[in-house]
Amino acid sequence: MAAKKTPINTPTYLRLRQQIREDIVAGQWALGRHLTLRELGLHYEVSNVPVREALLQLQGDGMVEMKMNRGAVVRDIDEATLNRFFDIRQALQTMLVRKACALRTDEQLVQAEALLVVFEAACRRSGSTDFFDAERGLYEFIDTLGDNPHAIELMHPRNCLVEAFRRSFGEHSPRDPDRWGRRARRLVRALIARHPAHAAAAMQEHVQVVREHLLRLMTEAPPSP
């Protein structure tokens, strides 16, 4: 998941919030891991004050749970949590792609088609290690075409947590990567045609397939050590 650039004048606790979020995705802090203020302060070479503020921000994002006088715990993901998040994600991404059909520009379509080509290439490579990076790159860009930064900000930290969960199973690809590519092409064609119903249907199908893939991982394979 691409890291967002943080302006240099951003307060320390906000920069720390971003860094901890990225490190959770990278597996530095595993899901379910207990984090103390002291441990984080030593690791990031900052005082306890910005650490506490960063953790409070991450609690608001849904990424950690604060413990009274005991730091925080990185949220773990169970089946119920995963399903609740994907219910919300499906509603928000469907809304965004419907709006994108009306708002997208020709220049943005060129970008979307370029990202689609990258994703389709990853779909064709057996055991591609960059499959999910290419998938996220395309769909996150399409989300931006709906011109609703607030909706994206609601999804982003939860997407990070879900990505950390996916990565905990090690390198893997879906069972039917070619179908993922064909679904993505249907979505881009709907954007080109400005057809919101077709775009919404393609997006809903994609979100459901991602949900099912993660649920299958949960039931079929233990996370990597």
UniProtKB/TrEMBL annotation:
Q: Which SUPFAM superfamilies does this UniProt record tie to the protein? A: GntR ligand-binding domain-like, Winged helix' DNA-binding domain
Q: For the HTH gntR-type domain, which residue ranges apply?
A: 10-77
Q: Which domain of life is it from?
A: Bacteria
Keyword Kinase applies: no
The reply on keyword Transcription is yes
Matches recorded under SMART domains = FCD, HTH_GNTR
Task: Give the matching Pfam families.
Answer: FCD, GntR
Q: Which UniProt keywords apply?
A: DNA-binding, Transcription, Transcription regulation
InterPro entries for the chain:
GntR_C, TF_FadR/GntR_C, Tscrpt_reg_HTH_GntR, WH-like_DNA-bd_sf, WH_DNA-bd_sf
List the protein's name.
Answer: GntR family transcriptional regulator
Species name: Roseateles amylovorans
Taxonomic lineage:
Bacteria, Pseudomonadati, Pseudomonadota, Betaproteobacteria, Burkholderiales
